[in-house]
Amino acid sequence: MTDRPLVVFDFDGVIVDGMAEYWWSASHASRRLNLSSGELSPDQVPDAFRRLRPWVHHGWEMVLLASELPHLDLQAWLRDYRMEQARALERRGWSAVDLQAALDETRRDAVRDNRSAWLQLHQPYPGLVERLQRFDAEGVDWAVLTTKTAEFTAELLDSVGLHPWRLDGREAGAKPEVLLRLQTQRPLMAFVEDRRATLEVVRRTPGLEQLPCLLVNWGYLRPDDRENLPSGIKLIALDDLAEPLARWL
Ligand SMILES: [Mg+2]
User: How far is the CA of 147 from the centre of ligand 1 (A)?
Assistant: First the structure.
C-alpha cells in the first residue's frame, strides 16, 4: 500500500466515444454468427442501436442487438431490455460466451488487418486525454476499469498516448470486486462511470459504501439516469473534470 491516491475510470462512454466502432464490430460479429451479409450497413449507426446502447453492460449484448436489428421492437426493448434480451437469446439458442467470442474475433481481425481504420472509429471526449495526462503533476494516479476486453482497451489507450497506472478489463472480474482489490493497494479517491446501475451496485457493496462515485453526464446515459441520484453518486460534467481533483468531490 502506498499513499498515492488513485482515481478509477470506466472506459467506454467516459474516456472514449466508440459508438461508431460498437456498431461496426457488432454488426460484423453478427454477420459471422448469422452467416449472412446483413441488412444494415456497418458504417451507419442505426438510431435504435444508439438509443439502446445505454442499457448495454457487456460487449456481447451489442452483437445480439445487431442481430435483432432492423426488426426489433424498439419500444418493447426500451420498456424491458433484460426480458427482451433473454427472449432473443433463447429464440436464437445463443450464449453470451458465443457472442463475446464473435465480437472479440471481429475486433482482433480489425486490429490486425486495418489497425488505423479501427482506431479511427473511436473518439476521446474533448479534453479527456489532456486531463488524464495532468494527473501525474497533481500527485495522483489513475486506472481504467472496464467490461471491455483488456487487449482492445490497451490498444486504444496506447494509440492516444494514455498510460494508466493500471488497466483491468472484463477478465479481471466484476467491477466491485476489482475496486475492493484496488482499495487494498491505494487510497481510492473516486470511481468515474457512465452506467448508473454499476455505481449503485458499487455503493451497495460492503467495503465500498464510502467510495465517491461520479456519473459522467457525457456518456451513454438512459433518459432518467440524471434524476434523483442517491447520496454518494454525483453527476459530473466535462468542465468539472478540468478542475483539480479536490474540487470534484
Ligand atoms: Mg461505460
Answer: 8
Helix, strand counts (H, E) of the chain: 12, 8
pLDDT at 96 over 80: yes
Q: Is 107 helix (H, G, I), strand (E, B) or coil?
A: helix
pLDDT the model gives residue 174? 97
80: Cβ–Cβ under 8 A, 6 or more apart, which residues?
Answer: none
Cell of 223: 433518459
Partner residues linked to 9 by β-bridges: 144, 192
Single pTM value for the model: 0.94
CA 217 vs CA 13, 101, 125, 166, 246: distances in Å: 10, 31, 12, 24, 19
- For ligand 1, the distance from its centroid to the CA atom of residue 53, given in whole angstroms, is 10
Q: How far apart are CA 23 and CA 6, in angstroms?
A: 32
The residue extents of the domains of the chain are 6-17+124-248, 19-120
Phi, psi values for residue 189, rounded to 5°: -90, -35
Q: What is the CATH number of domain 6-17+124-248?
A: 3.40.50.1000
**Does residue 135 carry a pLDDT above 90?**
yes
pLDDT tens track for 232-242: 999 999 999 99
At 226, list the grid cell: 440524471
Q: Ligand 1 being an ion, which residues bring their Cβ within 5 A of it? A: 10, 12-13, 194
Q: Is 87 helix (H, G, I), strand (E, B) or coil?
A: helix
